[in-house]
Amino acid sequence: MLLLLAVFLLVQGPPTCADAASCRAEAEAAASRGEFEAFHDLAWRAVQKGRPNDPALMLLLARAQVLSGRPEDAIVMLGRLADLHAPIDLTLPDFDRARLRPSWAALESKVTGAPAPSVPAPAPSAPDAPAPRAPVAPDAPRTDAPRAPEAPPPGDALDFDPPPALAPVGIAHDAVSRRFVIGDAPSRRLLVVDEVSRHVVPYVSAASAGFYDDLTGLAVDDRRGDLWVVSAKGTGAAASSILHKLQLVSGRGLMDVRPADDALPVRFVDVAVASDGTVFALDAAGARVFRLRPGSRALEIAHHVEARGLTALAALDDHTVVVAAESGLLHVDLASRSAQAIKAADDLSGFESLAWRNGTLVGVQRTKGVSLVVRLGLDGSGTRAQSRAILVASPLPIVGTLVAGGYFYLADHAIRRLTVR
């Protein structure tokens, strides 16, 4: 009986801790025993229970991330510490595995202030070749190498080596960590492209996050450091979906939210986040907008849309969204439960994605076999659009994301930036 009890206690996982101090003490104890997964979990609890952006707790988590087999997550965390100008000892033995990663050179440059190697290098190595341990380009002295830009300049391309059969369903930008998150449909996983190293690394798999068969959309809440993803499976009456909340810095799952059983079938095709943290998910199966209020764990049906072929949405604020449908764009006021077609001289059908920032609507429109990145200004009522401005035209599919001062878009395995006014 005692043996059975001991086994039962072991499978319960690490004990809970009451506050940041006790979580930190238990994490260090787990590390000393070589129980690195428990070290990671307890370090995460310490960060969650501690004061925001506590450098000591963030450093503890970075150590745990490396020792538990998450070196890329540790490099991102150390980058956040560098952004806070916190002292970091990069020579700690705990970081040995992280120092072997290609992105370590850029981190070391950020921490020490020394220039990073040129990007791209004049003679890049093979995609699978290991990166040199020291952040010095083979053919150029470190003191002469220019600092890598924080983002590709307007008109320049950030090229990267994509995985086989990459079919992106969406892209988001993590400005703090200077990287892009890409949803890949065939592999049902999220990938990360670092702005500086241009390396592609796995970020979140379907198995670890519990994604359904199809990834259908993603959006970053940069104010709160969250990544929201929607996935779906089945069609018609068998369609069902999940709204996933992930920690942006690590990809760690924080919450899964499913529609109520009496709301099925549901097939989410897009997700958007308002500035106050309200999350909206667009249901193509039932032609509905679902809403998750800040702090809530339950989805509610915010509006039934009287239109067919819903494909995308953008959040203007916590009670107003623009929805792309087969017939065009709709301005939806959730407070008054009303929707109006947005009037324009141009054809507003065929939008595959939408984003809104500072009075400007930017999206990807597919028409006549061509993908267009277009900008639309709306009037004060939000129901009439100015003349459409075509920013990019490509025969290839495009996914994009709107950020402060610009628009990043991915086409043909290169990420480019547009200035949007």
Short description:
With 421 residues, this protein is α+β, with helices and mostly antiparallel strands. The chain has helices at residues 2-11, 20-32, 36-49, 55-67, 71-83, 104-112, 206-209, and strands at residues 157-159, 168-174, 179-184, 189-194, 200-204, 214-221, 226-233, 240-247, 253-257, 268-273, 279-283, 288-292, 300-304, 312-317, 320-325, 328-333, 338-341, 351-357, 360-367, 370-377, 389-394, 399-403, 406-411, 414-419. It is globular.
Core attributes:
421 residues, alpha+beta, Serine Threonine Protein Phosphatase 5, Tetratricopeptide repeat, Neuraminidase, 2 domains, four-stranded antiparallel β-sheet, 7 helices
The overall pLDDT average reads 85
Q: What's the shape?
A: globular
CATH architecture of the largest domain: 6 Propeller
Main sheet characteristics: 4 strands, antiparallel
Number of helices: 7
Mind telling me the CATH class of the largest domain? Mainly Beta
The percentage of residues in β strands lies in 25-35%
User: Ends: how far apart?
Assistant: 71 Å
| Helix content range | 10-25%
How many beta-strand runs? Answer: 24
Question: In CATH terms, what is the fold-level topology of the largest domain?
Answer: Neuraminidase
Class derived from helix and strand content: alpha+beta
How many domains make up the coordinates? 2
Strand order of the largest sheet: 1-24-23-22
Which regions have little confidence, pLDDT < 50, spanning 5+ residues?
1-14, 117-155
What is the radius of gyration? 23 Å
CATH superfamily of the largest domain: TolB, C-terminal domain
